[in-house]
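User: Let's play a game. I give you a shape written as tokens, and you guess the letters that built it. Ready? Here's round one.
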């Protein structure tokens, strides 16, 4: 049906009357639709061939060709050519308005993810989401897609900066701290969250045994057992954790937890008193001790220049400039008021560096000042 429509429009476009001009205006939209169908059918080469005559960036942006630009960029992404796709999406975002701008910024984010430029991808998706929230707040499907993409990009950016061990630890902490005061006998969702948190802690211990987050995970994995009502197993894990390095990280907290278990669950005040006296002695002696696992405090090379934690973290170690195990705080971005007009934050800034003479301009430069994706295919 689309092919028949395309042939009819092509024949009609041969004239010079108003209907022919209308047909020439509609023809690129039909070609873009045909190319989108080909792309959805896992034929990106065919899709790119269809829109190639339209999609090469011109000296002036043509809104009637927006769908062709978008299909071309998506096809280049499917062909694993993120740089070439980024050329189109970035140029388009610098000139388009409305929904095409949102989709172009989204395309930039996807291309940047493919290039492993995670922080720039976060900025692109955040721009697209804010613009969509201000102008398309009733498009729940669009907003959900952009939020999911932003969350994925932010997660990858956090992994790149702080390490996968930190991100997994943060996941576990969010699950474990769903309930302020844990107690035996949890049921339903809370119990499932605690069990899931323990599984993540055990994963961290196994995959990153030399990480500071592995030390914290050994303590909190035992606390999860307490919350699940498995007191004997928790006591065994806490005792083994303390014995492995009596003056190491989180050993004081382990002794405190052992005393709390003895007092609240075993109803053994004498045993609890012994734990608390041991903790008092430990606090006096630990100041003169060097933890055997001090190397676990080392900073990842990628995080050396970081001075603040990720937005969703909470606290950062001032000394080591890396997030320390702590309670995560959910971050949120303020939503613009409905109907807000375009502001400075909704104006796209081109991704290329200042060496590009056209950075931030609304139109393209002459052909001699850019790299054509058409020349790199």
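Assistant: Ready! My guess for every position:
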């Amino acid at each position: 049906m689309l092919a028949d429509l395309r042939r009819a429009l092509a024949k009609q476009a041969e004239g010079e009357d108003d209907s022919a001009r209308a047909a020439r205006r509609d023809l690129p939209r039909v070609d873009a639709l045909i190319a989108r169908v080909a792309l959805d059918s896992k034929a990106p080469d065919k899709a790119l061939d269809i829109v190639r005559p339209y999609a090469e960036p011109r000296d002036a942006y043509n809104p009637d060709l927006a769908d062709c630009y978008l299909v071309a960029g998506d096809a280049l992404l499917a062909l694993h050519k993120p740089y070439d796709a980024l050329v189109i999406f970035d140029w388009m975002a610098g000139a388009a308005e409305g929904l095409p701008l949102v989709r172009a910024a989204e395309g930039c984010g996807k291309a940047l993810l493919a290039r492993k430029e995670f922080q720039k991808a976060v900025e692109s998706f955040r721009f697209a989401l804010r613009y969509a929230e201000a102008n398309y707040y009733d498009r729940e499907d669009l907003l959900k897609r952009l939020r999911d993409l932003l969350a994925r990009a932010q997660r990858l950016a956090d992994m790149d900066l702080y390490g996968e061990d930190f991100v997994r630890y943060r996941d576990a902490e969010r699950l474990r701290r769903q309930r302020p005061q844990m107690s035996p006998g949890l049921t339903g969702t809370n119990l499932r969250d605690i069990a899931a948190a323990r599984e993540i802690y055990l994963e961290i211990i196994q995959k990153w045994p030399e990480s500071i987050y592995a030390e914290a995970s050994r303590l909190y994995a035992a606390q999860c057992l307490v919350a699940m009502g498995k007191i004997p197993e928790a006591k065994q894990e806490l005792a083994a954790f303390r014995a492995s390095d009596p003056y190491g990280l989180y050993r004081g907290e382990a002794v405190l937890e052992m005393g709390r278990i003895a007092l609240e669950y075993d109803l053994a005040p004498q045993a609890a008193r012994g734990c608390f006296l041991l903790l008092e002695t430990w606090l006096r002696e630990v100041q003169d001790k060097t933890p055997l696992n001090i190397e676990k405090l080392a900073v990842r090379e990628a995080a050396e220049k970081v001075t603040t934690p990720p937005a969703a973290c909470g606290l950062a170690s001032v000394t080591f400039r890396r997030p320390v195990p702590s309670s995560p705080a959910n971050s949120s971005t303020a939503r613009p008021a409905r109907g807000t007009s375009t502001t400075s934050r909704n104006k796209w800034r081109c991704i290329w560096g200042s060496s590009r003479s056209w950075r931030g301009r609304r139109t393209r430069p002459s052909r001699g000042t850019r790299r054509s994706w058409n020349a790199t295919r």
